Amino acid sequence: MSEELMDNNKDRVESIENSTSTHNQKRKDYLPWDDYFMATAILSSKRSKDPSTQVGACVVDNHNRIVAIGYNGFPRNCSDDEFPWSKDEDKNSIKNKYMYVVHAEANAILNSNCTALDGTRLYTTLFPCNECTKLIIQSGIREIYYLSDKYRDKPVYQAARRMLDAVGIAYKQFIPTQKQVTIDFDLIK
């Protein structure tokens, strides 16, 4: 066999091996589970109509199944055109959104797909307040991963930490392995 023919055959075999090995291996740039769940919480937050703070939450069982999601908004059948979205200086004012908004964590717990939440993990875009922490404890959630903790010095968040520490629920600020997840509907055809 001529040297040129052998080189061509060798190139053809390498080409087949390369294409086979490329197609026979898993993709390396897939989302890790934790990034996937936090991205789901972020995507859920996009449903919030709150003009200042959009929060999303995702609850996951120990089989990595999403069992609940939620975002901050008004209770069912309370029109978001009739109730206030403003932050009145007086938090006890009837004109303050805080009198009406259901937090993302509470909505996720309430939206559970009939699955017991014992032993689950919560992924939330904002560290939970004291009221949501009470619900987290009562529902059986055992771990919390949060993105932002911008209100950590406020008493309601200090109280939340105190309760979580007292009952042994782990909480940790989430550090994504991927800095960006892009959803482009035009790419899916």
TrEMBL record:
<dbReference type="Pfam" id="PF00383">
    <property type="entry name" value="dCMP_cyt_deam_1"/>
</dbReference>
<keyword id="KW-0545">Nucleotide biosynthesis</keyword>
<dbReference type="InterPro" id="IPR016192">
    <property type="entry name" value="APOBEC/CMP_deaminase_Zn-bd"/>
</dbReference>
<comment type="similarity">
    <text>Belongs to the cytidine and deoxycytidylate deaminase family.</text>
</comment>
<feature type="domain" description="CMP/dCMP-type deaminase">
    <location>
        <begin position="32"/>
        <end position="164"/>
    </location>
</feature>
<dbReference type="InterPro" id="IPR016193">
    <property type="entry name" value="Cytidine_deaminase-like"/>
</dbReference>
<keyword id="KW-0479">Metal-binding</keyword>
<dbReference type="InterPro" id="IPR035105">
    <property type="entry name" value="Deoxycytidylate_deaminase_dom"/>
</dbReference>
<protein>
    <recommendedName>
        <fullName>dCMP deaminase</fullName>
        <ecNumber>3.5.4.12</ecNumber>
    </recommendedName>
</protein>
<keyword id="KW-0862">Zinc</keyword>
<feature type="region of interest" description="Disordered">
    <location>
        <begin position="1"/>
        <end position="24"/>
    </location>
</feature>
<dbReference type="InterPro" id="IPR002125">
    <property type="entry name" value="CMP_dCMP_dom"/>
</dbReference>
<keyword id="KW-0378">Hydrolase</keyword>
<dbReference type="InterPro" id="IPR015517">
    <property type="entry name" value="dCMP_deaminase-rel"/>
</dbReference>
